[in-house]
Amino acid sequence: MTEVSSLTGRLLVATPALADPNFDRAVVLLLDHDEEGSLGVVLNRPTPVGVADILAPWAALAGEPGVVFQGGPVSLDSALGVAVVPGGGGEGVVLSGPGAEAAAEGAADSDQASPGDEPLGWRRVHGAIGLVDLEAPPELLAAVLGSLRIFAGYAGWGPGQLEDELVEGAWYVVESEPGDVSSPDPEQLWRAVLRRQRNELAMVATYPDDPSLN
């Protein structure tokens, strides 16, 4: 396993220096990261669109707020379901929904685990966090899901692109927690993730939204 692949399941937290408006104050969960590139979803971009409006069968399982999140600027017509299954095992990534085939290409090579250890319709990414096959019947997972969030689109990086951004100081890399996926107050997730760090990053959480006013 290469050093590159070790970031799967961790969070990218946008630094105040990151100028791209697509990722201003973004918290990105990396779903796949290796020498072929990186793929993740932004955890703190809720949209006004309800899950019931586009994926009615899954609406009852989606956590509050029960809306679709914009996972990133790529393939906004694709839907990804990220779910926490306490005690879930196995490895790998399953991406589903219209347009998700392209997103799955980079993840397919890393999917080497036996599906027998996992609930049907769910595949682990890291710890208790995994992705849901949104074409499966929701009843398969209703009894085991700890939380579910639906994302439209994803964030993607080509080979070496994310590494270059890390060198440039665009992102902090920190450990994820299962509760990050289902935060009931996603607009405050950027500050909350930084605040829990036991180093100088905790101070960054106090950075003003508009530095010119400081």
TrEMBL record:
- Listed InterPro entries: AlgH-like
Q: Under which name does UniProt file this protein? A: UPF0301 protein SNA_05365
Q: A Pfam family matched by this chain, by name?
A: DUF179
One Gene Ontology term, aspect cellular component: cytosol
Question: Compositional bias (Low complexity) spans?
Answer: 98-107
> What protein family does this chain belong to?
Belongs to the UPF0301 (AlgH) family.
Chain segments annotated as coiled-coil in the UniProt record: none
Looking at the record, which segments are called Disordered? 98-117
